[in-house]
């Protein structure tokens, strides 16, 4: 089953009760096709940005639901046949993905140099330098 959303505009000539009953009718169409309703919003009267079919106002409603893709055609036919619906839009929605939590950078553990190792290296370096100096002085 895929996620869908239907947005629709209902004629402003109807009362609020009639708009709500039309919404129930749309919900029943989805249930008849064995769909699952996720979210249903009550139609609210809105002023339109531009007139649609000579109407400056309309009831705006939407329904989120899950339905098989092949059964969506039947609902669309019913929406087209309903004269009280001025305009509708069916959207296919993607399922919400869980947010990825950022991983923390793991630091490699570097062991501290022990104090006893440092002087040995210095001594080894000093001894080798002294030997080289002795060799150079003997040559001259």
Write a concise synopsis of the structure shown.
The protein has a domain at 2-93: 2-Layer Sandwich (Alpha-Beta Plaits).
Core attributes:
140 residues, alpha+beta, Alpha-Beta Plaits, four-stranded antiparallel sheet, 36% helix
Provide a descriptive summary of the structure in words:
The chain is of the alpha+beta class and 140 residues long. It has a domain at 2-93: 2-Layer Sandwich (Alpha-Beta Plaits). The chain is 36% helix and 34% strand. The protein is built from three helices and four strands, in the order βαββαβα. It has helices at 16-32, 72-81, 117-139, and strands at 2-10, 36-52, 55-67, 85-93. The longest helix is centred in the last third of the chain and has 23 residues, at 117-139. The protein is rod-shaped and about 115 Å long.
Number of strands: 4
Q: Number of helical runs? A: 3
What percentage of amino acids are in beta strands?
25-35%
Largest sheet: 4 strands, antiparallel
CATH architectural type of the domain at 2-93: 2-Layer Sandwich
Just give the CATH class of the domain at 2-93: Alpha Beta
- What does the radius of gyration come to? 38 Å
Oligomer: single chain
Compile the SSE list and pairings:
Blueprint: E1 2-10, H1 16-32, E2 36-52, E3 55-67, H2 72-81, E4 85-93, H3 117-139
Antiparallel strand pairs: 1-3, 1-4, 2-3
């Amino acid at each position: 089953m895929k996620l869908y959303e239907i947005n629709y505009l209902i004629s402003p000539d109807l009362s609020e009760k009639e708009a709500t009953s039309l919404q129930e009718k749309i919900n029943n169409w989805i249930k008849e096709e064995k769909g699952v309703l996720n979210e249903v919003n009550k139609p609210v009267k809105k002023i339109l940005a531009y007139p649609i079919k000579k109407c400056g106002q309309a009831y705006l409603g939407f329904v989120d639901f899950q339905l098989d893709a092949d059964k969506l055609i039947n609902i669309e036919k019913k929406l087209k046949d309903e004269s009280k619906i001025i305009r509708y839009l069916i959207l296919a929605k993607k399922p919400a993905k869980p947010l990825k939590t950022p991983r923390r950078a793991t630091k490699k553990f570097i062991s501290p140099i022990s104090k006893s190792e440092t002087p040995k290296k210095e001594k080894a370096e000093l001894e080798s330098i002294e030997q080289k100096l002795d060799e150079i002085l003997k040559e001259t």
